[in-house]
Amino acid sequence: MDYQTGFFYLFSAVLLFAAYRVITSRNPVHAVLYLMLAFSQASALWLILKAEFLGLTLVLVYLGAVMVLFLFVVMMLDIKFDDDRWGFWQNFPLAATLGGLVAAELIAVLWVGFPTVTAPVAGVAQAADVSNTKALGRLMYSEYLYPIEVAAVILLVAMVTAIALTLRQRKDSKAIDPGQQVHVRASDRLVVVPMAATQKTAPVEAVAAEEGKA
Which of 34, 80, 99, 199 is paired with 189 by a 20 to 30 Å CA distance? Predict the structure, then answer.
């Protein structure tokens, strides 16, 4: 076994452990940290497969931006740790079914193989001006254009759903309904009290008499 195979098994083992801890960790912050570890190991696997662009993109986009944002959002949310695993066992049958379906699809793909992929001929060096980033872009936006559009729509729906789930009503919120502000009348907020513009000054004798009584 060469060093490349050894690194592959090492990164794969750490990736599987991190993925397992993501779904079993009780603390959501720890789950996000394990997810960041899983992404880093996946990036290392991309680098081993000589897909440098995908590996660097995974580090820059997910680890550098998305996962840090997720970490701050999870830390800012008011999550109750005393809940019964957030309904884990109620959602377990559906999650197990979807996980088994995805596993079956991956096994089927790996079993059939990739007949369209051709290995480089031994002894023939690739051209120096060949860019895997350029080739990946052409392949994504030509042959796999519709799957990418479907994935983009799914991500948009997931983003809208996440916003809808976190946008809950709070008792200590001081926000006012704009509809109520529009229908407010001036008579409901302002009361005009009639008062004289000027008042007559009391005579000096009356003021002196009142002071004498005091």
Answer: 199
